[in-house]
Amino acid sequence: MQIQSYFSQLDSIEGELATLNLGPTHPATHGIFQNVLKMNGEKIVSAEPTIGYIHRAFEKLAERRPYNQITPITDRLNYCSSPINNMGWHMTVEKLAKIEVPKRAQYMRVITMELARIADHLVCDAVIGVDTGALTGFTYMFQERERIYDMYEEVCGTRLTTNVGRIGGMERDFTPAFHQKLKDFLKTFPAKFEEFHNLLERNRIFMDRTIGAGPIEAERAMAYGFTGPNLRACGVDYDVRVMQPYSSYEDFEFIIPVGTQGDTYDRFMVRQEEIRQSLRIIRQAYDNLPSGDYHADVPDYYLPEKPDVYTKMEALIYHFKIVMGEVPIPKGEVYHAVEGGNGELGFYLISDGGRQPYRLHFRRPCFIYYQAYPEMIKGSMLSDAILTMSSMNVIAGELDA
Amino acid sequence: MGWKVSGLPSLKPSNQKPETFQPKTFQPEHMTNELIHARIEQQRPGILVRHETAYDGMLTLETTREQILPLLQFLRDDEQLQFHFLTTLCGIHFPEEKDRELCAMYQLHNWRTNTRIRVKVFFPIADPHLPTATTLWPTANWMERETYDFYGVIFDGHPNLTRILNVEDLDVFPLRKEYRLEDGTRTDKDDRFFGRQGHEGRSFD
Questions:
Q1: What is the Cα–Cα distance from A21 to B59, expressed in whole angstroms?
Q2: Helix crossing, A103-131 with A82-97: angle to 10°?
Q3: Which residues pair with residue A343 across a beta bridge?
């Protein structure tokens, strides 16, 4: 179909207009999606995005998996910040099963999620730098991201697709190595980050390339369902962490940075400031980390300690029931949203009391705001379109689900 | 906090003072489920088929497909309700409900009062037509294409109702509950052994 429409467009070339396939495997799109552009010289007349290249039918997959086995699916939504997706899912199930998570686990989750937000925004901002021609900052920021991944490894054993946390809390307490790595990170990261920031913030080339590139107005952004940094760059201070605090976000002080123009520069700057605010949240959460248990006392949902499984009858029964997906789940319908790396990541879950969800719908911010892309790049140069795409932080995993 | 802004284009920290920010001040007393429902009944009598408070406390309205667009428009434009933001839209399939097999769920959000609401409309699978909401929100465009792709709901008036995530020549609507999820020969997950009736025990033959 795509090829057909491509050739039919070729037939209708008039004057200077040409059709250009941007993607699906163009390196500058940082992901697998295609845009068929109609070009007038170097100016874009219209764009037709095609998505779905890595569609894996998550919503269908979720209908045949027990609740704890859906967490790895959520990893693969926005894989730049998997922990936020994981926690959002756990909190959705906890809302359904009415599980109260202890304060310590909530703070541990906040630390993990904010580390994920930093990693997510670092990638996006570093890549904006690359697309404007500044490769160096990217290499340094990726070193910092590796340090965050090292910390993930201490928390959950994996780096990219984290599967972190469990329904009812965290799978283990912070390890001594994690404490050391987090302290090191909090000490040395800010200076390196500011260095990166100073390379770009007032860089004449960077400013010329990004200011005014791919702007969108606040009203239009809201009509298009924008959330997250892309919306805040337009000047609307909507943030799920403040509007509907979850996991004790109401305990922390932070600001919601907003821009005014909604262009690439503002999106970059909003993400940069959010990194600083995330650091601020991590410091507050880490300094005030409550003592107590790192998971709720819910044997129906939370796997027992492994030694107990081998020695205690009750633990063995619970272990078996959870692994077989035989956990008591009430009937009901819940929606839970978290502030993902790209905006409001929502989980709409209908349970009929079965071992799997009856219906699980992911509200994926990327999918929703990417449809504004043709409008945002219309009339701009091709190089601006590339930059606009990277500053929107379109993550193919979240886009296609 | 924040960065140096003097004379440069132009970012400023939010006007919302974080220290004094109280989420509760955003939830005026009049946006309770009862009062929202009363307002709709007062302004648009008879437009609702049913209303209930869902498990998670969100007001859930049900209407007919003839009334869905007027209702959505009223919810968006009414000066008291102001549900201006379409959060999400998805389809649901209930194969056992005769002539109400398919459902479309719209979730709206009023950011001023921080109130969320659900609107559902049920319709027969043999006649899966709904009017498009792209006239109200451009964001409905891809949401409706996704719903069409997964459930075969035809949104009349949609500018470009084609499949979005699956390949164009797919001839099924994969999210419908018409296809066996498990290998039919498996007996280890028979619900009768666990004293429960989940949907996966249902036969789709």
A1: 45
A2: 150
A3: A340
Name the residue ranges covered by the structural domains of chain B.
28-166
Closest in B141, B174, B189 to A57, CB measured: B174
The answer to whether A13 faces chain B, any CB pair under 8 Å, is no
**Contact across the interface for A51 and B107, Cβ inside 8 Å:** no
Element (H, E) at A186: helix A176-200
B11 part of contact set with chain A, CB < 8 Å: yes
B50 close to A (CB below 8 A)? no
Over the stretch A231-256, which tens digit does the pLDDT of each residue have? 999 999 999 999 999 999 999 999 99
A64-110 pLDDT, tens digit per residue, is 888 999 999 999 999 999 999 999 999 999 999 999 999 999 999 99
What is the average pLDDT value for chain B, to the nearest integer? 81
Distances (CA, A) of A223 to A361, A364, B202: 21, 16, 40
In angstroms, the separation between the Cα of residue B77 and the nearest Cα of chain A is 13
ipTM score for this prediction: 0.89
Evaluate if residue A347 carries a pLDDT over 70. yes
How is domain A58-400 classified at the CATH fold level? Cytochrome-c3 Hydrogenase; chain B (1.10.645)
Average pLDDT, chain A: 91
Could you tell me the fold of the domain covering B28-166? Answer: Beta Polymerase; domain 2 (3.30.460)
The torsion angles phi and psi of A371, rounded to 5 degrees, stand at -70, -10
Distance CA A71, CA A74 (A): 5
Contact A51 B201 (CB under 8 A): no
- All structural domains of chain A with their residue ranges: 2-50, 58-400
State pTM to two decimals. Answer: 0.89
Q: Which of residues 81-100 of B touch A (CB under 8 A)?
A: 84-88, 90, 92-93
Residue A173, min C-alpha distance to chain B (Å): 30
Asked if pLDDT for residue B61 goes beyond 70, the answer is yes
